[in-house]
Design goal:
The protein is mainly alpha-helical and 193 residues long. Helix content is 68%, strand content 4%. Strands 1-2 form a two-stranded antiparallel ribbon. Strand 1 (30-33) and strand 2 (36-38) form a beta hairpin. Residues 1-69 form the HTH merR-type domain.
Length: 193
């Protein structure tokens, strides 16, 4: 298919598709002449994916950042923490990880992000959130198992990588929305007089 058909099929304007190509977000088509290219079904999926990730994902995140999630993992939550706070947070993380059978690698992006979040909660006086840390970990375990099982069924490496990005960005948005829906129900049960 040619560029105009790719635009129709994907629902993304030609100018946007060309921008995605310039930015390296969409691979080039197969050249049929110096200024003409042919596109495939892979090219139809990618602009839809990029658009969905930008519309549903974190509004402050760039396209490159979103697509980089598959290769580089989570963005870091950076917090200035004292050695004492860091040791406290790592202790809490290691305790939860031990109960769940998780491996912990201090210094990794995920662990450092958790350290930052735990220390921020402590610093603002909302350590009560940490009383539910085991429950949050149990929930995260179930979600991770569902994510990995679903992505493993996708097959080809490129599709699995795309599935990992979608699962991370849109899956996080899905989890946040489901959590808010559940909050509404739980609030009705707990706070209804």
């Amino acid at each position: 298919m040619r560029m105009a058909e790719l635009s129709r099929e994907s629902g993304v304007p030609v100018a946007t598709i060309k921008y995605y190509q310039r930015e390296g977000l969409l691979p080039p088509g197969e050249l049929t002449s110096p200024n003409q290219a042919r596109y495939s079904a892979v090219h139809v999926r990618r602009p839809k994916l990029v658009r969905a990730l930008l519309e549903i994902g974190d509004p402050g995140t760039s396209t490159h950042d979103i697509l980089g999630l598959a290769q580089h993992g989570l963005p870091m939550v950076t917090q200035e923490v004292t050695e004492e706070d860091r040791a406290w947070a790592l202790g809490r993380i290691e305790e939860v990880a031990r109960k769940r059978g998780w491996e912990v690698h201090p210094g990794s992006r995920v662990v450092e992000s958790l350290v930052g979040v735990l220390c921020a909660l402590r610093r603002v006086g909302h350590e009560w959130v940490l009383d539910a840390l085991d429950s949050y970990a149990e929930s995260a375990d179930a979600v991770a198992e569902a994510d990995v099982t679903a992505v493993a069924k996708l097959g080809a490496t490129e599709v699995v990588a795309e599935g990992a990005v979608v699962g991370t960005v849109l899956g996080d948005a899905l989890q946040a929305a489901l959590r808010r829906l559940a909050h509404a129900q739980a609030s009705q049960r707990v706070f209804t007089v």
